Structure formats: structure tokens, C-alpha cells
Amino acid sequence: MQNLAEEVSMRRVVAGLFMSLDGVVEAPEKWQLPYFNDEMGEAIGAAMAASDAMLLGRATYQEFASYWPGVSSDDQPFADYMNNTQKYVVSTTLENVAGWRNSTLISENISEEIAELKRQPGKDIAITGSGTLVYSLLQDDLLDELGLMVHPVVVGSGKRLFGDGGEQKGLKLVASKTFRTSVIYLTYQPAGKEGEG
Q: Which one of 71, 94, 137, 185 has the largest count of C-beta atoms within 10 Å of its C-beta?
């Protein structure tokens, strides 16, 4: 059987996460805000401009869907992107995602459905947060790029991106930048992607 990663081309799945120094990606709103500046805003804006679809896990979708639909671009610069962009929600427990426009539920054959999305023409498919989904896609060789904004804070507890289990996966650093707030923006690609694209 042909590997799913070998079948796909065209669009890339690109993840971006805020991470603490001790690897926590959960609840960044509790520790990330003091480090946010214009450099981070520009980097996030560039990632949004490069994508025309979002891929979200259940928890991130529910959090976003409870906030963004009532927000306008006058209040938040990213509101138009968040509300108008096509969203694909990966969940085996949600029954529908009708509460936020442009949302489509993926609940079965998840790897195959995401591989099919990658075969369609378009820009990048962006993942914001959704650590469990990011880790799963890395394991399934469907993640093309991983951007980590590593914050100079030790949170002490919370869900970490890379838990126990799963196969060993090699990554290569393709870009790095240090922001004035001492956040380091690291961009990785799977080591097997070398020379592709």
C-alpha cells in the first residue's frame, strides 16, 4: 500500500503553536500574552496570508467558536480571517460544527480526508493550536511544516505537544528567528521532506 505522504502533493499542512520552554502548548492565553509583540503579529499574519483553510481539533474549535463569531475586524485584526476562512474540524465526538460559518466536520477516515484536502488546489492548510491533531498528523506523515514560538517561560504543568508513545520522527530546522521579547520562532519540516517542493 502506498504511503499517504507519497500520494499527496500541492497543498501543505502547516502547524503553528505557542510553546513554553518546558514544552507546554495548552492554554497559551494564560502565559503567552506578555510576550506578544508586533514581530509575532507579523509572523502570524504572514502564515494566515499563505493559507486559505484551517484545520482544527475539537478543543481548539470549541474554544474559537465560542469567541470569534462575535468579533469584528474593528476589535481584532485577525477576525476576518478567522471567520471567513474555510475550517475543517477533526473530531470523532462532535455531531456538527454548524455554530461557526465555513466549518466542515471530519469525523471518519481522518488521514484519508486530510490527504484528499492536500491534493486539492489551493494555499496552505493552517493548524492553529490543536496539539493532539498536530502530533497525530506528524505520526501519519501528513504534517509538512511545524512552527513553534517557544516562549521564555516555564509553565510547570499542562498538556505538552510531544507526549509518550508514537514513532520516532526526525525533523530538520529550516528557519529560526529571535523576537525582541526573547521568543524564539523555530520552523521545522519532517526530515523526509528534504528536497521536496
A: 137
Residue carrying C-alpha cell 478567522: 82
- The three-state DSSP-derived secondary structure of 160-184 is ECCCCCCCCCCEEEEEEEECCCCCE
Strands 184-190 and 145-151: antiparallel
For each of the domains in the chain, give its residue range(s) and CATH number, in order of start: 4-193 (3.40.430.10)
Grid cell listed for 83: 471567520
The mean pLDDT of the chain is 89
Position 7 confidence tier, pLDDT thresholds 50, 70, 90? very low
Q: Which residue has the cell 470549541?
A: 62
Distance, in Å, from the CA atom of 70 to the CA atom of 67, rounded to the nearest integer, reads 6
CB-based contacts of 123, cutoff 8 Å, min separation 6: 11, 50, 51, 52, 53
Tell me: pLDDT of 177 over 80.
Answer: yes
What DSSP state is assigned to residue 33? G
The residue type of 168 is: Q
Residues 16 and 93: their CA atoms lie apart, in Å, by 24
pLDDT (tens digit per residue) in 20-56? 999 999 989 999 999 999 999 999 999 999 999 999 9
Q: Beta strands 184-190 and 124-128: pairing type? A: unpaired
